[in-house]
Amino acid sequence: MGKCDGRCTLLVICSLQLVAALQRQVFDFLGYQWAPILANFLHIMAVILGMFGTVQFRFRYLIFYAVWLVVWVGWNSFIICFYLEVGNLSQDRDFLMTFNTSLHRSWWMEHGPGCLVTPVLDSRMAPDDHHVITVSGCLLDYQYIEVLSSAIQVLLALFGFVYACYVSKVFQDDEDSFDFIGGFDSYGYQPPQKSSHLQLQPLYTAG
């Protein structure tokens, strides 16, 4: 019963991670945030692999999923520090998120709750094919939305890591106990073999 509860809980956590990652992927695509897009894609693949390992009792897949969650926590911690400008990190270095391919920022910068976007006409600060805007009236600034999104990812990853370790330990214990009772060893049950020789019986006929 404990194994079933652990597997079901881990599947629920993986499902929540998948939904949160897909939602985040959509908004990162809208904001042309290429580094987060790549990280989200790898995370989605790892979560699907973790779900497959949970359903199919694959111990190694769960270990890979747990190791990836450690990397995922580190990445989201970096995102939180980046938007809060911790240490020497600064949001002016947007090339970290876009691989220096565009001047776009987070999609939430212009589309946050209550935000009013006003274009600045005849601005000499804007490069070619770009425009300068001012954003005001936001109920929640975009950097805090990004921080909240990353914090949710960290929280789900921590729960996923704990349950992945627990379920993988249960799977490993079950494999060890099954091998102990002779599950696949050479002294286990051997089905009776069919003889390839046919025994001929004489046939008598009435004369």
From TrEMBL:
Its main location: membrane. The keyword Transmembrane helix applies. GO terms for cellular component: plasma membrane. It is a multi-pass membrane protein. It is found in: Cell membrane. The chain crosses the membrane at residues 34-55, 62-86, 147-166. Keywords: Cell membrane, Glycoprotein, Membrane, Transmembrane, Transmembrane helix. Interacts with atp1b1 C-terminus. Belongs to the NKAIN family. This is Sodium/potassium-transporting ATPase subunit beta-1-interacting protein. It comes from Betta splendens (Siamese fighting fish). The gene is nkain1.
